[in-house]
Here is the input.
Amino acid sequence: MAIKGWLAKKDNTSGQELKEVLSERPYKYNFMKQSKWVSIASIIFIIVGIIMTLTRGFNFGIDFLGGNLMEVKFDRAVEINEIRNIMEESGLGKSILQNTKPDQYIIRTTPLSDEQKNNILETFDKKIGISKPLIQDRVVAASFSKTITRNALIAVAISFAGVLIYVWIRFTARFALVAIVELLHDLLIILSFYAITYREFNTNTTAVILTILGYSLNDGIVIFDRIREELRINKRDKYIDLTNYSINKTFVRSLITGTTTLFPIIIILFIGNEILKDFAFGLLLGIISGSYSSIYIGPPILVAWNNRFPRYKK
Here is the structure.
């Protein structure tokens, strides 16, 4: 019955029309249609972030600003979580803790007044017991600030260069440059968010940025690979339709990957300590940004580029 129906359709359809029917790539959702509004929203957000950066700057953490350093010897072996809880009660949950011995820790905080420092030491002595005088008690400058900034910029530059070379070899120069645009978009979105919300910008933030760049690239590569395959086998559909079809075919995969990645991050946001929450929050923001940039930022640029300088079918 199905064969008869197909033959009947063939009899009433010209050869050219039949080829067009067979070459169609139907898709459920037109992502390209909505990309303009998403791009405008991103541009506005980034502009606001740049304005806030120029007028107020970032809320840099201990490593960038310096502060107090105390090396405390306790009367017994103590777990780092016990010390972290006491610091959180004092409003210093993001202090840097480093154990040198089971009963000895280096504690780095933001600049403290004598009263604040004495209150913290009294709390330690009351709840755990400490030996006096302290092994170290001094004010430290932001000695790591320049080193951290320089290393972070070098790492980002190397990442961009690696991405450019990899995508250029695997795909074409167009795909490589669009991938760089996506990564720059995600980087600016993250930096703008930290500038607007004035969340603390610390070494965890630099780690988050590098992690997110890799995640965003992975999402983009999946879509690029699908577009490339469609360009090889489909010789009739418009470039914009092939792009929409490719995104629709990979959307479920991207959605599942993003959702499963978000589960542990959300759990950390609820039950983690201040440092873990700060790291998880940056990852949450970056995953959201990376997911939508691979759909609404990169592919529309490819379509616009191809329309302006046609290399593939329009």
About this structure: The chain has twelve helices and six strands. Residues 1-23 have pLDDT under 50 and may be disordered. The beta strands are 59-60, 67-73, 96-101, 104-109, 136-140, 200-201. The first helix runs from residue 2 to 11.
